[in-house]
């Protein structure tokens, strides 16, 4: 069977992170041409498929001009996967307004800006497309957000953006979905939680497989879903 994304152009934000590297690797394996915007050169993903991995440095995802400029240079955009974001855990009394605004910016604002730019590019192409965002379990199960209220609110915004945009685009063949992972099994999380039962955590490769299914051309019906990826948590 041929690769489902052969020669299709896909943007992956946050491609230098643990989840991002897994997603980029899986999309490259499926034949995609991956465009990865990064702020600087540190932590850039590497792959044997160098001709199909196009890393663009100096892109600030919270800057609408920079985001629009980046997407304008992507040819024949098929899919846009928005993994960029961040996490912070703090009880309400220990969090500041600046903390809340920061989490909103790096999670919700970057998602909104990239969705907007991606939709414009897909409309220019006229062949539809796929968008995948990343929410989180506390974003769709708010009671799980105790001790991280600002983060839960920011990821809830991502889930709302996803579902509202899916409804807005339902007649344009642009399908919009999100994944909502529980704790990812990454080196950073293992260091942060040395006593945790990591066997219950979600493998980045499993999350990458879910992303692939959502961006594949074979997905012609699923839109507006926020897919729980909880592993055994």
Q: How would you sum up this structure, described in words?
A:
Helix 1 links the parallel strand 1 (about 10-15) and strand 2. The protein has a single domain (about 10-230), classed as Rossmann fold (3-Layer(aba) Sandwich). Helix 1 (about 20-30) packs across helix 7. It has a 7-stranded parallel β-sheet, with helices on both faces. The protein has helices at about 20-30, 65-70, 95-125, 135-140, 150-170, 185-190, 205-215, and strands spanning about 10-15, 35, 55, 75-80, 130-135, 175-180, 225-230. It contains 7 helices and 7 strands. The model has no long low-confidence stretch (mean pLDDT about 95). The longest helix has 29 residues, at about 95-125. By secondary structure, the protein is of the alpha/beta class. It starts with 8 loop residues before the first strand and ends with a strand.
Element layout with pairings:
Layout: E1 9-13, H1 18-29, E2 33-37, E3 53-56, H2 64-72, E4 77-82, H3 97-125, E5 129-134, H4 137-140, H5 149-168, E6 174-181, H6 187-192, H7 204-215, E7 226-229
General shape: globular
Helical proportion, percent range: 25-40%
- The average pLDDT score comes to 94
CATH class (first level) name:
Alpha Beta
Quick one: how many beta strands?
A: 7
Q: How many domains, in number, for the residues?
A: 1
Q: What would the CATH topology be?
A: Rossmann fold
């Amino acid at each position: 069977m041929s690769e489902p994304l052969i020669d299709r152009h896909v943007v992956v934000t946050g491609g230098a992170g643990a989840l991002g590297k897994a997603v980029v690797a899986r999309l490259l394996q499926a034949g995609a041409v991956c465009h990865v915007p990064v702020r600087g050169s540190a932590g850039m993903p590497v792959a044997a498929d160098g001709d199909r991995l196009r890393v663009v440095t100096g892109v600030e995802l919270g800057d609408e001009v920079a985001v629009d400029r980046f997407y304008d240079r992507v040819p024949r955009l098929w899919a846009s996967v928005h993994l960029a974001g961040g996490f912070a855990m703090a009880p309400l009394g220990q969090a500041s307004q600046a903390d809340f605004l920061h989490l909103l910016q790096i999670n919700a604002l970057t998602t909104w800006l990239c969705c907007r730019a991606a939709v414009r590019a897909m409309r220019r192409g006229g062949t539809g497309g796929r968008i995948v965002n990343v929410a989180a379990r506390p974003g769709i199960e708010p009671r799980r957000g105790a001790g991280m209220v600002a983060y839960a609110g920011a990821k809830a915004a991502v889930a709302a953006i996803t579902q509202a945009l899916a409804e807005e685009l339902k007649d344009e063949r642009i399908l919009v979905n999100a994944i909502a992972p529980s704790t990812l099994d990454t080196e950073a999380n293992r260091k942060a939680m040395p006593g945790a039962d990591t066997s219950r955590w979600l493998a980045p490769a499993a999350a990458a497989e879910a992303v692939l299914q959502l961006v594949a051309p074979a997905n012609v019906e699923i839109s507006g879903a926020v897919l729980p990826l909880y592993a055994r948590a």
